[in-house]
Specification:
By secondary structure, the chain is α+β, with helices and mostly antiparallel strands. Among the domains are: 17-112, OB fold (Dihydrolipoamide Acetyltransferase, E2P) (Beta Barrel); 300-430, GAD-like domain (Gyrase A, domain 2), CATH 3.30.1360. It is 29% helix and 23% strand. The protein has an eight-stranded mixed sheet with strand order 6-9-10-22-21-20-17-11, with helices on both faces. Strands 1-2-3-5-4 form a five-stranded mixed barrel. Strand 2 (39-46) and strand 3 form a beta hairpin. Helix 4 (143-165) packs across helix 15 (555-563) and helix 13 packs antiparallel against helix 14 (527-540). It is globular, with a radius of gyration of 31 Å. The relative contact order is 0.10.
Length: 610
């Protein structure tokens, strides 16, 4: 029984009732084999779908085919020649695109045998993630993961076509590059040819794409690989991809429509959803004031309320301390969230858990206030509040019996925002206010006009809120150059948020050499340090630099949202664990001592490095 020269005539998701009596050749993996009443049924699977093959030993030549079919096990790779027929009455599988037909096996060849896999190759499985990652090549046979990778492929294809139609060109930039501080730790690569020197894997192609603008390539993009050697959070990977875009001679008003139409095309082509354009915008200050987050989920309420003025003259020491004016002229705040009509749903333990969450985010505590059936306020701080304060609190917030108020007061307003913003999301999940992944209408939002700089009290210096190449807004140029009102200066920066997740961010860039030098100086870099780290870039700025800006979208996060899945690992072919390990290849791993010697690298023990 030789294999036909043409390995397959159709794939396993292709045949329909219109193909009856057609002789076909299929190749694929055995998903299941069942022996029922002398007939052998084989589900043959490839990435396109599944077709049922039936082997009848009573047919001419069927005994030989039956003998081969009896040897089959799960995940054997086979080639099958046969004829398409309609399934018997009542045997149609309406959940399967090929469910009206089956292929009567006339010839069957085992191309490759398989060991028993460590878990079933099916979408609903209970295998641990550790086991799935160790055998990722088997995990990737599951239809759901193949679907995710196909959606990712489709997404990138649409993006490339859209950018091509808008005059952008794809340019690759180096992976071996100079180490430049961009907020996270670099992965370092030693140079064998120049001992004692090192490359860095890029955290992003930031300076390189700006150099392309200086080169006159006014519309660039790249599906760029990026690397960050940082402590990984639940949904981060040490290597990831971003859709990197940079353009010259366009301001935000001209740039945004290109990006919005690209996103709208993805949602239309992949999810069959129409987005209403232009997408809404919200200043950073409003996002923080209302939602306590610079990536707010606007699909539900529970917005923050400012209680600072209400307690301006309070005798309650905790509130007094929060509103003290600091030497730098900063004042903290008192803010809260009103949760209407749900106090019976929150036990004392639930409230303690919320308080622990607030403390973990830097708050000194979380104050709760319940409105009892009588209208009286129940709270650990009730005895510290005056009667007018209690009445004003009820009136100002429109409180009713059963309402719950959660309050954070802190001298650092950022702590108030971050803790209440996180608690708001916890409440949204607990109360079922947040749609599950893949459900509900998408809530897009541009967050704009971020602060340019942030002052670190402990270190006594400024940090760039985005990165050191972000331009101040034009109206703030003069203050920036003169060093005035630095914390009030806004950046020409913007993030695109979807359902409370940042999917992309960017800015207009600094293109004047004097402003870039001033930025480095503000960030505490001496002229010598700036030259050492960015001398090549500062020199390039002096050769005629156009106004330019860009954006980067996270490929993995965007694909996860389009696929309706939670973790980005489910849209990556070979992800790593939270500790950055590849369980399949067992990397990172050691290398031979002679190779270390050749690189001029010495490995120290943990005791020596400590």
């Amino acid at each position: 029984m030789a294999v036909l020269k043409k390995m397959r005539s159709h794939h396993c998701g292709q045949l329909r009732a219109s193909d009856l009596d057609l002789e076909v050749q299929l190749c694929g993996w055995v998903s299941k084999r069942r022996n029922l009443g002398g007939l052998v049924f084989i589900d043959v699977r490839d990435r396109y779908g599944l077709t049922q093959v039936v082997v009848d030993p009573q047919l001419k030549g069927g005994a030989q085919v039956y003998e081969v079919a009896s040897q089959l096990r799960s995940e054997f790779v086979i080639s099958c020649r046969g004829k398409v027929r309609r399934r018997p009455e009542g045997m149609t599988n309406r959940d399967l695109p090929t469910g009206e037909i089956e292929v009567v096996g006339m010839d069957l060849v085992i191309l490759s045998e398989a060991k028993t896999p460590p878990f079933l190759i099916e979408d609903d499985l209970d295998a641990t993630e550790t086991l799935r990652l160790k055998y990722r090549y088997l995990d990737l046979r599951r239809p759901i993961l193949q679907r995710n990778l196909l959606i990712r492929h489709r997404m990138l294809s649409l993006i490339r076509n859209h950018l091509d139609e808008n005059g952008f060109i794809e340019v690759e930039t180096p992976l071996l590059y100079k180490s430049t501080p961009e907020g996270a730790r670099d992965f370092i690569v030693p140079s064998r040819l120049t001992p004692g020197t090192f490359y860095a894997l890029p955290q992003s192609p930031q300076t390189l794409k700006q150099l392309l603008m200086i080169s006159g390539l006014d519309r660039y993009y790249q599906i760029a690989r990026c690397f960050r050697d940082e402590d990984l959070r639940a949904d981060r990977q040490p290597e990831f991809s971003q859709i990197d875009i940079e353009t010259s001679f366009l301001d935000e008003e001209a740039f945004f429509p290109i990006l919005e139409s690209m996103v709208a095309k993805l949602w239309k082509e992949i999810l069959k959803q129409d987005l209403k354009l232009p997408l809404p915008r919200m200043p950073y200050s409003e996002a923080m004031r209302r939602f306590g987050s610079d990536k707010p989920d606007i699909r539900f309420g529970l917005e923050l309320v400012d209680l600072s003025s209400l307690f301006q003259a309070t005798s309650f020491q905790v509130f007094q301390n929060a509103l003290v004016l600091t030497p730098k002229g900063r004042r903290g705040s008192i803010r809260g969230i009103v949760v209407p009509g749900v106090q019976d749903r929150f036990s004392r333990k639930d409230l303690d858990d919320l308080q622990s969450q607030a403390v973990n985010l830097g708050a000194k505590g979380l104050i709760w206030v319940k409105v009892q059936a009588t209208g009286e306020l129940q709270s650990p701080i009730a005895k510290f509040l005056s009667i007018p304060e209690k009445e004003t609190l009820k009136t100002q917030l429109g409180l009713k019996p059963g309402d719950l108020v959660l309050i954070v007061a802190d001298p650092c307003e950022k702590v108030v925002f971050e803790s209440l913003g996180a608690i708001r999301l916890s409440l949204g999940a607990t109360l079922g206010l947040i749609p599950k992944a893949g459900e509900g209408s998408p809530a897009f939002l541009w967050v704009v006009n971020f602060p340019l700089l942030e002052f670190n009290e402990k270190e006594g210096r400024y940090y760039a809120c985005h990165h050191p190449f972000t331009s101040p807004r034009p109206e703030d140029y003069q203050d920036f150059i003169e060093g005035k009102n630095l914390e009030g200066i806004q950046a020409s920066a913007y993030d695109l948020v979807l359902n409370g997740v940042e999917i992309g961010g960017g800015s207009m860039r600094i293109y004047q050499p004097e402003i870039q030098s001033a930025m480095f100086k503000l960030l505490g870099l001496s002229e010598e340090e700036a030259q050492e780290k960015f001398g090549f870039f500062l020199e390039a700025l002096q050769y005629g630099t156009p106004p330019h800006g860009g954006v980067a979208f996270g490929v993995d996060r965007l694909a996860a949202l389009l696929c309706g899945v939670g973790p980005i690992r489910d849209v990556m072919a070979f992800p790593k664990t939270q500790k950055g390990h590849c369980l399949m290849s067992e990397s990172p791993s050691g290398i031979p001592q002679e190779q270390l010697v050749e690189l001029g690298v010495q490995v120290l023990s943990g005791r020596e490095t400590g």
